[in-house]
Amino acid sequence: MNPGAVAIVGLDCVFPGAPDADAYWDLLIRGADATGELPEQRRTGPGFDETVHGGFIEDIGTFDNDFFAISPREAAAMDPQQRLLLQCAWRALENSGRSPSALAGSDTGVFVGVMGTEWAQLHMSDYARVTPQLGAGSSSGMTANRISYHLDLKGPSLAVDTACSSSLVAVHLAVNSLLSGECSTAVAGGVNLVLTPALGLVYARMGLAAPDGRCKPFSADADGIGRSDGVGAVVLRRLADAQADGQRIYAVIRGTAVNQDGRSNGVTAPNRWSQREVVAAACRRAAITAGQVRFVEAHGTGTALGDIIECAALGELHAVQREEPCGIGSVKGNLGHTEGAAGIAGLIKVALALHHRIVPASRFATRENPQLRLAERGLRLLKAPVRLPADEVFAGISSFGMGGTNAHAVLATAPRPPRTPARRTGAAPAVGVFTVSANTPEALRRNLAVQADAVARRPRGDAATLCWNSNLVKTGLPYRAAFTARDTTELAAVLRAAADDERLRAGIADRAVHPPTIGFLFSGQGIQEPGMTSGLYRDCASYRHHLDTADEALAPHLHGSVRDLILAEDPAVHRTGWAQPALFAVGYALFRTLGDLGVEPDAVLGHSVGEFAAAVAAGALGLEDAARLVARRAALMDALPDGGGMLAVHAGPDDLVEPLADEPHVTVAAVNGPADTVLSGETDGLDRIAAHLHEQGVRTRRLRVSHAFHSPLMAPALDRFAEEAAGIDAGTPRIPMASTRYGHMLGDRPLDAGYWKEQAARPVLFAEALDDLMAETMPACLVEIGPGPQLVQLAERAGLPTGVRLLLPVPGREATARDFAETVATLYRAGVEPRWQALYEPARRTAEHLAPYAFATEHAFWQPAPRHPDRTTDATGTPAGAPAEAPAGTPDEVPAGEAGENDPVLGAVIEAIVEVGEYPPERVGRRTRLYADLGFDSVMIMQLKDRIEHRLPRTEGVTVQQLLPALRSVGSLADFLSDWISVGART
Fold first, then answer.
1. E-strand stretches of 136-247
2. Average pLDDT for residues 412-418, to the nearest whole number?
3. CA–CA distance, 658 with 490 (Å, rounded to integer)
4. How far is Cα 926 from Cα 949, in angstroms, rounded to an integer?
5. Per-residue pLDDT reduced to its tens digit, 262-272
6. Cβ contact 519:454 at 8 Å
């Protein structure tokens, strides 16, 4: 493997006539012309008229500012180049097979090529209108910094301006940063928007402007440059890292080079020898010869002199003995000259061509310029698409700056991916969990619809691989949806139903602010069934592994395999000697399987024999010790004489005092809830109590057990059991553990031999233990770890706090991997970040393309510079020196909402916040977070302080340092100010 190789693992772009990379490839393959007239929106600017032609993105004002927590005021002040790049970078990272949110805090670098500051020319020349927002919004350096800031990327972040070679130079810098170890992932891109006619006038006065606004590269009709918009970004990683992580690789950058013309015929005149040398240098770094290059995406602006010099430079290298001439072309024939984005436009074209193994034809190639002498220079103009062979192919990209900075890159086709393990033949399609996340409920609906349409366009097939990719890419945002599916038809249907049905969407979507606290409840005896969890054992490799491990730990202490007994559906599982080890094995395997998926308990509780697996989960017992204890406990109890039973009673223990007084051989065995009591003892006594209670209208039910557990009838076995337990190595639980022996949290009490003896003899105080667990740890999710519903039913009847989720990974004997996956999906929606790979076999964990994130389009920000600026106003149209107004009117006219009407301080705070950010008033409420929801920064905090003092003069003494801790939310700020005012009033 070439240690200097860098993989292109993700990409996204917006070009004229191509809103995304798929549309861009379609445009290239069709050889389409994307040029046209300047959009109406931009004709209002100074200097433009209706005759301007070029390549233009139709709508550059639309921006999803809420997604990036950018205030409307700041969004309106931002150069649309910054806005377009933010969304492009997010989609490119998604396209790389990773959630952008997962890269937060990483050393990911951002390298952006940008040419000119036309937005600043429009908006920064009238000094009376300058604001901090316009200052940051007009800086070309901020094009890269915005991405790093909003995505929380900590690697290098820089913008480079080398004129038309800017974005390929940015790629060069990104490649070198990766190879030096400065960053492990890099976003490299470029952006260009035609906002003023200034550069077009420069081209015209240099004799370089095409009259019809079209570039005609290498054509006999070439007559100059047509300007064009464009934005593109690629995600780069070291090839070895990309392969190790199983990322899709579009192409491999084998070498890049940058040089300068030096002193040539003029600072803007191209230099043939420098162009030749930069191409040669890139080939040397790629460890190839120019003769190995199949095609070159040339700079190809369509100026007569520029095309001639470029072809002469290429001919110096390519006029060698070779099977066929090197193909050349230029995307500028389709789009026009995207200037600062020209290099990235060419790079993405070449990456897609190598990925699809087809090189698109070059527009205007049919009338080749004979002065170029292509044939004798080993070159040919691509007049039709060319199919590439199956072996490794090399291609080049050139980009030359007006000031003489030249860049060239050599790309190669991606290496063949390693063979994935074969899928099991004859097996049903694997189940997967498809995830979608967004920043608002409406955004979630929009993205559900987009994913539904994209999946529906696929042929019917297994959904697991798509689900795996969604877990990598479509996670990390607060509003979450998740669905289980086995095939694409089913998946498309459930996505569409969720997008269309308000009630269904409410049922599957959650806002996950923090990971939930999770409690594991380990089932006790009585819930076992022949064949329990056999479907999960068949479908889930992780569960198979852990059940096998538990079986190996139990085997030395049993006369057979508990795993084989379960899978054989042997009714002997109901005998105590097998039931307790089988439940322990299932509980152990389930909690370990959930652990493999990243679902760890914050607290545990076990019911009777379930307490052994709970102790292992809490770290208080090792597997070997617990397995020996469970096996000996079960054997000793099973060896007791038959007789005795257990009776479930729908009443509390206080209601049973009278009937129990007449039956000395019956006792309370478990208190499971306010009206859930279990009695244990001699069968005749249980029958009499049942008959008595039946006459009083109290429901009872005999339990399917072999002995009278938790009754004095267990006494003959317990002394021997205590002897067996004496040698165990029991520690203190590492996580909170509720004891059903004590009826409260265990704390630092030892799980020694005495504990386990008393635990088997005394009543199971499940209800009290659950109450204490809820009070101490406040879990949002309770997960039953067992083969069916037992404890979740008890917990549900116990009157839990509102909102606690009761989850059942194995709802019964016929449970499969799908039921288990449903629990994982629910936990994800609640805020858990699962380790998804444990849910899928390796054969399913391959890269698949998903539809990109669908940003909101209802917000448009377009501020054309006035033809006759009024120097008495600032950038928001407010008289200079006066507070800026929200769009709805003066501050006094901004409604503060019902909360503000009842709380004058809160109302004033809301008004001030609305004014500072120009937010819609309905977006700001008491629970709104200033940083996370509104995107406040230090500049906005200073502006907010001034506006609050204007409305609430008695807060004038508050310092910024005192204010900062109160900025958690609108409500916390209002409460702080209310306290400040009230203290001031008292003093």
1. 157-160, 185-192, 230-238
2. 91
3. 58
4. 19
5. 988 788 888 89
6. no
CB count in 10 Å sphere of residue 50: 8
Using alpha carbons, select from 141, 165, 122, 142 the residue that is nearest to residue 337: 165
Instruction: Tell me the DSSP string of 869-924.
Output: --TTB-TTSSBTTSPPPBTTBSGGGS--HHHHHH-HHHHHHHHHHHHHHT--GGG-
Residue positions counted in the chain: 987
Beta bridge partners of 237: 7, 185
| 982: CB partners within 8 A, 6+ apart | none
- Residue in 950, 974, 953, 955 with CA at minimum distance from that of residue 896: 974
462 DSSP assignment: B
CB 496 within 8 A of CB 456: yes
DSSP string, 737-751: EEETTTTEE-TT---
Residue 832 scores a pLDDT above 70: yes
- Mean pLDDT value of segment 750-773: 94
List helix spans (H) across 362-487: 441-456, 464-473
**Beta-ladder partners of 482:** 435
H runs (alpha helix) in 457-575: 464-473, 488-500, 502-508, 534-539, 541-554, 562-567
**Helix (H) / strand (E) containing 394:** strand 394-400
**H helix or E strand, kind and range, residue 667:** strand 666-673
CA distance 105 to 375: 52
- 10, 2, 17, 851: which is closest to 352 by C-alpha? 10
Q: What pTM was estimated for this model as a whole? A: 0.89
Token output for 90: 């997010």
User: Mapping DSSP to helix (H, G, I), strand (E, B) and coil, where does residue 84 land?
Assistant: helix
396 with 293: CB under 8 angstroms?
yes
CA of residue 709 relative to chain centroid, distance: 49
Q: Kind of pairing, strands 109-114 and 185-192?
A: parallel
State which amino acid sits at residue 968. Answer: R
Q: 536 or 868: whose pLDDT is higher?
A: 536
**Where in 703-770 does DSSP place strands (E)?**
737-739, 744-745
Nearest Cα neighbor of 671 from 645, 699, 652, 650 is 652
Percent with pLDDT over 90 in the chain:
80
Partners of 575 in beta bridges: none
What gap in Å lies between CA 488 and CA 461, rounded to an integer? Answer: 6
Exposure of 680 in the CB half-sphere (CA atoms within 13 A): 21
The residue ranges of DSSP E strands in 743-897, in sequence order, are 744-745, 781-785, 805-807
Residue 838 reports pLDDT greater than 70: yes
Q: Which residues of 463-475 are buried (b: 16+ CB within 10 A; e: fewer)?
A: bbbbbbbbbbbbb
Among 131, 844, 942, CA closest to 421: 844
Alpha carbons 756 and 763: distance in angstroms, whole number:
13
Which two tokens mark 665?
């051989």
The token pair at 61 is: 């004002």
Start-end of H helices in 152-263: 166-179, 198-205, 239-244
Q: Are strands 805-807 and 35-37 parallel, antiparallel or unpaired?
A: unpaired
Kindly list the distances between the CA atom of residue 665 and the CA atoms of 606, 647, 714, in Å, as whole numbers in the listed order: 26, 13, 12
Q: Where does the pLDDT of residue 896 fall: very low under 50, low under 70, confident under 90, or very high at 90 and above? A: very low
Is there a contact between 947 and 883 (Cβ–Cβ < 8 Å)? Answer: yes
d(CA 57, CA 817): 47
Q: What is the DSSP string of 581-640?
A: HHHHHHHHHHHHHHHHTT---SEEEE-TTHHHHHHHHTTSS-HHHHHHHHHHHHHHHHTS
Spatial distance between the Cα atoms of 606 and 671, rounded to a whole number of angstroms = 14
* Torsion of Cα atoms, 437 then 441 then 444 then 445, to 10°: 160
* 432 bridge partner residues: 485
Hey, is 186 helix, strand or coil? Answer: strand
- Residue 868 backbone dihedrals phi, psi, to 5 degrees: -130, 85
> For residue 256, what are the contacts with CB-CB under 8 A and spacing of at least 6?
168, 171, 172, 175, 176, 282, 285, 407, 408, 409, 410
